[in-house]
Design a protein that fits this description.
The chain is mainly α and 192 residues long. It has one domain (26-175). It is 60% helix and 0% strand. The protein is globular. It starts with 14 loop residues before the first helix and ends in a 17-residue tail after the last helix.
Length: 192
């Protein structure tokens, strides 16, 4: 009995997706969004780091995040709760018992994501973690700027190849085997 041989196949990107997310002509657009989002994260993390009450790091670490998480738990009731049951379980059983650890993770996570986005270093990864933090805040029932920031982070993840083009990614990624090169030949178009 002969077995069928499966060969890997790549589905080509549509031209519009290639233009939006991989064309360096849009790198200035992604630069603006990347720096804007990075500044938002850096500013938020820096505010927590330098908080005069010291409720994010230090002896009182965990105080602020405990208040935030307990507030999220109050949003788990009603006909249309803002916080789902499974996330309430996570808050109660994982986050609250480890509030001090989560406090440090939030502060330094926000600062590191902000710096990485501003400098254009590992842009796709930094944008992923930015979106991850926004999703965590949204799941905890906090809206504010989180939806907009989540959307921008998601776009930056999609555009990682050009979002860091005017940044450290231009120098660092090729050293890691990710080749950012100018395509001098237009893509081959096959017609059958």
């Amino acid at each position: 009995m002969a077995t069928a041989r499966i060969t890997p196949t790549q589905i080509p990107e549509p031209a519009v997706a290639r233009f939006l997310f991989a064309d360096t002509r849009l790198a200035p657009f992604w630069l603006v969004l990347r720096v804007y989002l990075g500044w938002q994260w850096l500013e938020a993390g820096w505010g927590k780091l330098t908080n005069p009450a010291g409720v994010w790091i230090g002896d009182k670490a965990g105080v602020a995040i405990t208040g935030f998480l307990k507030g999220a738990l109050t949003k788990t009731t009603g006909e249309h709760p803002d916080v789902t049951g499974w996330y309430a379980w996570f808050i109660s059983n994982v986050a609250l018992p480890n509030a001090k650890v989560f406090s440090y993770l939030v502060v330094f996570g926000e600062i590191l994501v902000g710096l990485a986005l501003i400098m254009g270093l590992f842009t796709g990864l930094a944008a992923f973690f930015a979106g991850f933090m926004n999703a965590a805040f949204l799941l905890a029932g906090t809206v504010s700027a989180n939806p907009w920031m989540f959307i921008v982070a998601t776009w930056l993840v999609l555009a990682w190849r050009t979002a860091g083009y005017f940044g450290l990614d231009y120098f660092v990624l090729p050293r890691l085997g990710v080749f950012l090169r100018r395509n001098t030949n237009p893509p081959e178009v096959r017609t059958n």
